[in-house]
Specification:
alpha/beta; globular; two-stranded antiparallel ribbon
Amino acid sequence: MSGNNTYARGGNTAPQAIQQQAEDALKKIEKTRAEMQTLFHAYYSGILHFPFLFDQLIYRNTINILDGPGSAGKSTLALQLALATIFQQPFLLPCFSHRREEIGVDISNVIYVTNENENPKEIMVSRLASMAQAMNVDWEDINKHFSIFYTENCLTEKLFGTITPTAAYTTLQRAIQKYQPDLVILDNLSNLAGIEENSNAEVNTFYSYLLKLKTTILILHHHAKSDITNGAGETTPRGAIAIRENARCRLVLKKDVLAIEKANFSQYDQHYIPLARRDGAFFAAVPEPLTSDDLKEIDISDETKNNGNGNGNEKKTSKKKRKEDLYVGEFEVL
C-alpha cells in the first residue's frame, strides 16, 4: 500500500472536514455511552419504565402504523384511538389502558392530518358524533381537543435528489408546539409523505423527520390494489419493508380482525383481536387478545354455511349465534 494514501488505515491525513466529522461522531458516542449508563442504573433500580401511551401497545414519541385494505375501517379505528387518547380511556380492551404522562391532567390533545378529499368534514363530524354518543363523552371536549389539519401538500418532497421538509411539515411542527398533542394521526402515507414508497432510504428519511416532531405518531397505510382487484384471498402492504419494520407498533385491520403484528416490549406481540361493528364503530369481541391458535377456534364470520342437504336451510355458526357472548370492553359501543 502506498505510503501517501490519503485514507491509509490508522493514518491522520484525511481532509480536515472529515477529521472534524469524526471528532464530532466520537463525542456523540461518548455522550450516548454516558446516557446508556444512566439508563442501566435506572433499569436495575426499578425506576425505568417504558413510557407507554397505551399499555402493552403504543409507547410515546414513536412511529406506529395501521395498515389494511381499502374500506376496512382504518380511519374509523384511528378516530377511536384518537378519542381514547383525548379522554384517556382504554383502547378496545382494558389491557390497552391509557397511561397518563402528567398527574392531574385528565384530557389530552390529538391532531389528525389528512386532506379533505380523503376525509371530508361532514364525514369526520358524523363519525366523531357517533363515537361521542357511544362513549358518552361531551362533544364540546372533542371540539376543544381534536384538531384537524387539512393539507393538499405533502410533509416532505424531493428536491435535487434529497428528501426535505415542506411548508406543511413546518405548519404541523408549529401546531405540535402549540397544542402539545399526545397523538398525531397521518391519514394516509401515500397522500402525505411525498416519497417513493418503494425506497427504503426515502422512507427512513421521512421517518427521521417525523421523529424530530417528538410526539407519538400513527400512520395509516393502504394495502396493494393489485391484491384487491385480482381477487386474491389475502392483501399485502405496499411499498418498502422499512415502512413496516421501522414502526414500533404495526397493526393490520382486515376482515374485522385487528392483528397486532408487531408491538415492541408488549406481551401481546403477534396477537389478534376479533372485532364487531355497531353504530359505525368497532368493539372487541373477546376479553383479551388472542394467539393465532386461539383465533382459529373462533368463527366471527357473518356468512351462512350450507348444511349440505341442498334445501336452502342454512346453518349460522357465526356472530349471531355468539352475540350474547360477545365481550364489550371499557370502550363500549351500544
